[in-house]
Amino acid sequence: MSSYSYLLDLAIILLFTKVLGLLTKRVQMPQVVGALLAGLILGPAGFGILSETSFIHEIAEIGVIVLMFCAGMETDIKELKASGKASFVIALCGVIVPLVGGFAAAYFFNKPGMIVSDADASVFLQNIFIGVILTATSVSITVETLKELGKLKTRSGNAILGAAIIDDILGIIALTVVTSLADSSVKLGTVMLKIVGFFVFAGVVGFIFYRLYKNWVDTAKKELHRHTIIAFVFCLLMSYIAEEVFGVADITGAFIAGLIISNVRRSDYLQSKFDTISYLLVSPVFFASIGLKVVLPEMSGSIVGFAVVLTIVAILTKVVGCGLGAKMCKYQNYQAKRIGVGMISRGEVALIVASKGASLGLLGTAFLGPIIIVVVITTIITPVFLKVVFRPGTAPVQEQLIPESEMVTSYYENANEIRGEGR
């Protein structure tokens, strides 16, 4: 007999994420914090009511894809181009500083008398790999928070998005370099070629699709549901091809698909449709699934100490690294602080990287607990810190939304209507 327990799981997740989201909203925190807490409370780290099933995992994956697709549709292409160099510098500093910081923390603790590792790789590679884990950025948390605050289309928001996409690429390269040293089957040259190939592919296919889709949508007499369906098909195909064919994160494919469609005259209509499916089902499941992944093992005093140090290093290195990169690119102090805070969250990205390292003998089982703690804390505090750094009075002048004169189309004016209120 078929099991219908997944229906109950969905009902519990949707109920708890909304209730806790409203509670966190009452204490002036973004609702996404409540959704994350719901996953922790319901999962193995809390009361153990739910565990992550393959069904929840797949719905969550669709959730993050939709979230990044919407972020792409909300992003001003002209501003993204203008901040391209700055985004690269911010991402580069946001990778190098955490890599060094993570290595230093691991170098101090990963030794006899402190923490005994059962990993097969050399201690040097193990320490480097912990640094690689800290380079990860889970921008989905930041995107949802900035949407809720109505700040995604600010210059800081655009810089965060651009830097996060480049951060993903640099993170893949760093991961590949380390894993290739531990696994001879991984070839750095092949990975680099695939990354370049993906962006060439996205440019060619994206341009062709854009011309055909824009002509079809813009010449229609009214908005049609079929426009939304084809847009979603394109998003899913780009996500699939990015991950399966080129080895680039699926969310990068989704984001680029959103960028391509953002220039369509009726992009505000398309975005409103995706916003509905996002907050109604897939986004709550995604944010709750992060908490459901957390299983806290028993930890000794030295491991707890390492967890505390690694968490502090994880927070400071992103704020300092990305903030320093922003200052090098002439951003104001308040903007640099916002960009640094927006890049703190490690989320599910760090868990995926950690599991990859564990399977290759690059990460000892004793270090999994501290990594999980880093993921939990950085994921929860990022929305809280963003609320603080974006509150009124934290800047000499209020950071304005990108002016309408600079927008790609006049129909883009409603793209900032996605809010947390009334959801």
TrEMBL record:
It is a multi-pass membrane protein. One of its GO terms (biological process) is proton transmembrane transport. It is found in: Membrane. Gene3D superfamilies: 1.20.1530.20. The chain crosses the membrane at residues 6-24, 31-49, 55-74, 86-108, 128-146, 158-179, 191-212, 224-242, 248-264, 276-296, 302-326, 371-390. GO terms for cellular component: membrane. Residues 14-389 form the Cation/H+ exchanger transmembrane domain. InterPro entries: Cation/H_exchanger_TM (IPR006153), Na+/solute_symporter_sf (IPR038770). Pfam families: Na_H_Exchanger. Keywords: Antiport, Ion transport, Membrane, Sodium, Sodium transport, Transmembrane, Transmembrane helix, Transport. This is Sodium/proton-potassium antiporter GerN (CPA2 family).
